[in-house]
Amino acid sequence: MFKDVQWIDNDKFRLLINGILVTYKVEIQFGTITKVILRGLNYNSVCNLEIDMRNNKLFSLECIGFEKDQVKKAILSKLAVQIPKL
Q: Other CB atoms closer than 10 Å to residue 19's CB: what's the count?
């Protein structure tokens, strides 16, 4: 689901946002539309992704908290799924 990220554990990875390493915990709710929740552990940041795993396409991405626009860009650059023009 994610490429080129620094995995810490099976459910945690780090992203570099404006020179700051942010650690995220990944929660996955499998279904026809898989929901992925990314919770920042060291910064106030939460992102919700909805992915159609049958077609390997991103439906939605919402982020709130710390540098939300930069976080969104970083996540989009690391997703290993097809991303529609937003």
A: 5
Q: Starting from the edge strand earliest in sequence, which strands make up the sheet with 20-29, in order? A: 6-9, 12-17, 20-29, 33-40, 45-52, 57-65
62 has a pLDDT exceeding 80:
yes
Write out the H or E segment, with its range, that includes residue 33: strand 33-40
Query: Could you give the CA distance from residue 46 to residue 9 in angstroms, rounded to a whole number?
Result: 19
> What is the DSSP-derived secondary structure letter of residue 39?
E
Q: What are the backbone dihedrals phi and psi of residue 32, each rounded to the nearest 5 degrees, phi first?
A: -55, -45
pTM of the predicted protein model: 0.85
Question: With the C-alpha atoms ordered 67, 2, 37, 32, is the resulting torsion angle positive or negative?
Answer: positive
Region 55-62 average pLDDT: 91
Query: Cα(62)–Cα(39) distance, rounded to whole angstroms?
Result: 12
